[in-house]
Amino acid sequence: MYGYLWLYKKPLRSYIYKRIISSIIVFFGVILFVFTLLFFAPKDTAENVLGKQATAEQKEAFNEQYHLNDSYSSRLKDNVKGLLTFNLGTSFEGEEQISTSIAQRFPITLKLTALAIILVVIIGIPVGVLAALRQQTLWDYGVMFAAIVGISMPGFWQGLILSMEFSIKQNIVPARYSPSDYLSIILPLIVLSTVSIATVARVTRATIVKIMDEQYIVSAQALGLAQQKIFFKYITRNALLPIVSIVLLQSGIMLGGTAVAEKLFKIDGIGNYMITKHLIPDVPAIMGGVVYIAFIVILINLLVDILFAWLNPHMHSDSKEVSR
Fold first, then answer.
1. Which CATH architecture has domain 101-248?
2. pTM for the whole thing?
3. Residue 45, class by beta-carbon neighbours within 10 Å (0-12 exposed, 13-18 middle, 19+ buried)?
4. I need a surface site. Which of 53, 251, 284, 311 has the fewest CB within 10 A?
């Protein structure tokens, strides 16, 4: 006679809890790291804002007004509180409310990133698929070479070359972004998405090639199943998770890398805002921009890890069957 003893272990739930806790630790680690760099960086914020003609009394009054003479721990506590309550106070440059400025600029950056993600999906994935299906052909070699070039190309240099050629010389697209001119978004999107398109294409190709070499695919081909059925029913299904994961990870990378495109093409997004504030440096403004972007990137990575775990059959082994 056989009996069954169910031992609940909940590995998926335990994994998710651990990842959430580690993500929270990373988030506060980013806050601590960025603030420490800004706090100890050699600077004279008062002089940068007031000018070299400012007197010692004016500088001292400025430092007192913005608590720049406070201790490390006191300023860190104030910054953490401001970040968590979305109340970052006023900018060092005047009465500008930092939280309001960030809230106005974040949608612009998110829109730019979202359009870049769409571009990555509609170009990177099909190109990678075709390269995998046409292995060791001129197309395959050309795609892989272009991907290497795309990954190796610095975004700022690429943006300058594109601006000089297509904006200044050819006058095809504007060199400066304008919300009312849809053509002005083309060059920023190219600069922002090039590396990610190349990365997604390479990962897509490598994933599909690996799956095509699996024994069950070889067996399906030997049985005479239609190539379209093999591709859509078996290859695509198994390749979907790695491809979706790399797209999500690249989304976070692109969001964190918008500063170059925004600065180069005069886009009033959060990346351009942070670069401008870094010249002072306006610590609360920089902290807000960096930390809120980091939060979204950390959240994306957390979702990718949870997605992987959820689709892993071993993580759903809530119980063991014991016989006697």
1. Orthogonal Bundle (1.10)
2. 0.83
3. middle
4. 53
